[in-house]
Amino acid sequence: MNRTARLALASTALLTFAVPALAAPALPDELVGVWENIVGDLEVILLPDGRAFVAHANASSAVKAEPGTCRLQSAKLLCQWLVSGPEKLDYGVTGDEMTLAGWIDMRRTAGAGAAPTTYARRLADLQTDAAAWQKKYPVGKPTLVNRKEDPNPVRTVAKAIVYTSPWLQFMDLTILTRYYQDPRNLNFQREYKTFQATEFFFYPNGRFVHTVTLPKGLDAAFQPTYDMTTVWGRYDVKAGGPLEGDTVTLQYDGGKAETVKVLDGRRFLFQPSSGVVYTNQDVKKRP
Fold first, then answer.
1. Are residues 20 and 130 located together in one domain of the fold?
2. Count of domains forming the chain
3. Sign of the dihedral through C-alpha 121, 280, 275, 224
4. What start and end residues bound the annotated signal peptide (predicted)?
5. Where would I find the beta strands (DSSP E) of 111-219?
């Protein structure tokens, strides 16, 4: 698809693209435009009807770009992003300068006239990127390849649609700093790194496993130890578009059921019950 066609598609998406939750009323003129922070690694686009787009260039942001909606509530900017979810921000505007969250200094680089075109271009690029990623992780009928560690491999959803890759892994990882008392010097504490992680693995036979790894402490050699809990279940995918993503129904073997969203080229999983965004662990190479 050439760039003209992609921009035409995005222009249509300006009217039809659906993002979660908020029905956004018009934003005041003082907020409308394309905003960039001083160091140039954050761009926020705000349109008069409340549609929005944010792009991060800094390495610490797992979600590099996403559309959403924004509106004012109690003198705050309340946004609902496609992947990251809700965000409430303090803001202050003086002319073409804005402060977000009390410390992020932004400047307006384009006004209301140019903002829709910039929004369309950013959305078109993201749609193309997400479509390429989505193709890396196709869906289809289950294949009978069981995991030996699965206690109930035959418990699957009848006529399920599944992810057909050898597996699809999503993780939420947090690195933690902890301390222990030096046994050779009781007045001194030493620092060490550990982690906690929650993961989903989806297998092509229609089964999934959910694991939680939590730090336990240190062993006799002062190496970190962990506790892990593992829960298996079955799943079914209702495939969606590249950006708005798939709706995945999870049925745990213990009886619990929930629905999660796999978004943005199947690069992220959002679990509404916890509010956690998990990152696909197989996106190191571009499609």
1. yes
2. 2
3. negative
4. 1-23
5. 139-140, 162-163, 168-181, 189-202, 207-218
Same domain, 176 and 116: no
What burial class does residue 261 get, using C-beta atoms within 10 Å of its C-beta: 0-12 exposed, 13-18 middle, 19+ buried? Answer: buried
Looking at the fold, whether 115 and 231 belong to one and the same domain comes out as no
What DSSP string describes 26-53? Answer: PPPGGG-EEEEETTSSEEEEE-TTSEEE
Q: Half-sphere exposure of residue 151, counting CA atoms within 13 Å on the CB side?
A: 8
Q: Quote the domain boundaries for residue 128.
A: 3-134
Structure tokens, 59: 């390495």
Residues 43-93 have pLDDT tens digits of 999 999 999 999 998 767 788 999 999 999 988 999 999 999 999 999 999
CA terminus-to-terminus distance, the chain: 16
What digits encode the pLDDT tens for the residues 125-158? 999 999 999 999 999 999 988 888 999 999 999 9
* Contacts for 172 with CB less than 8 Å, ≥ 6 apart: 197, 198, 199, 276, 277, 278, 279
User: Which pTM does this prediction carry?
Assistant: 0.83
Asked if residues 208 and 200 have their Cβ atoms less than 8 Å apart, the reply is yes
Question: Does any domain span residue 147?
Answer: yes
What crossing angle do the helices spanning 3-16 and 115-136 adopt, rounded to 10°?
100
Structure tokens at 73: 């509530």
